[in-house]
Design brief:
Layout lengths: L1 H81 L4 H84 L2 H13 L5 E5 L2 E2 L8 H9 L4 E2 L6 E3 L6 H5 L4
Parallel strand pairs: 1-4
Antiparallel strand pairs: 1-2, 3-4
Helix pairs in contact: 1-2
């Protein structure tokens, strides 16, 4: 029975590792999604910076167009002034010219303001491009590492399943069935060590007679409280610790 118990303990160890790998494999796609989310944030920032710079350039172009229109209008008004028939007409043309000149000055002031804003905006775009380029390299490296780890985990999982299959085939079907039932009802842990007369999982004291039977190790026994399969590790003797004399 000790041999069966050792095999079941190995089965529990395999199942624990299977659970770890399965969880890790399941979390890797989420990890990759988080990485890409961070990259998307960098892309959005770059687009926002480019948008701000483009808006600045559009405003400057509009101001330059307004200046050109007002200059053309002033030229026409001056030609019309020459044909003015009285002072009232002359002054009216003069007022319109002054208004156009005022608009030109406002546009020129706005262009200077936009030019002052464009330099930091251009720097923002270049900085965002450089940062995004760096982030893309880092993200691709992280994604490659995650895919490599997934492949290794899947390969390891396949080996574990193969070993588990051979172990289950060698064990008594009733013992396997009992192990699977306990594992399902006890959060994946079907085996517990008896330490100082207690189950190390539920911490309930074992009956003295029960504990003595467990120590003999001639049968598979389960905790009377949590129903986990129990095992007992004999303490090393003094001779075991110092070694047998030559």
């Amino acid at each position: 029975m000790q041999s069966d118990l050792k095999v079941v303990m190995r089965l529990q160890s395999l199942d624990g590792r299977v659970a770890e790998l399965t969880k890790e494999i399941a979390t890797l796609p989420k990890h990759i999604a988080e990485i890409e989310k961070k990259l998307n944030g960098g892309e959005r920032k770059l687009e926002a910076d480019k948008g701000a710079l483009a808006a600045n350039q559009r405003d400057r172009k509009k101001m330059e167009g307004d200046i050109q229109l007002n200059q053309t209008k002033i030229s026409k008004l001056r030609d019309q002034m020459l044909a003015a028939k009285n002072n009232d007409q002359y002054r009216a043309f003069q007022h319109e010219i002054e208004f156009c000149e005022k608009e030109i000055r406002k546009s020129e002031d706005r262009i200077l303001e936009l030019m002052g804003q464009s330099e930091p905006l251009d720097k923002n775009v270049k900085a965002a491009e450089a940062s995004l380029k760096h982030e893309k390299v880092a993200v691709e490296a992280e994604k490659a590492e995650a895919r490599e780890r997934t492949a290794k985990d899947q390969a390891a999982l396949k080996e574990l399943f193969e070993e588990r299959k051979s172990i289950v085939a060698a064990l008594n079907p009733g013992l396997v069935s009992n192990y699977e039932r306990i594992k399902k009802t006890r959060g994946g842990i079907a085996i517990a060590e008896a330490v100082d007369g207690r189950c190390s999982r539920c911490f309930i004291s074992l009956r003295p007679q029960f504990f003595q039977e467990l120590k003999r190790g001639d049968k598979v026994m389960t905790c009377e409280s949590c129903n986990r399969i129990l095992f007992y590790t004999r303490p090393e003797s003094f001779e075991d610790q110092i070694g047998t004399p030559a």
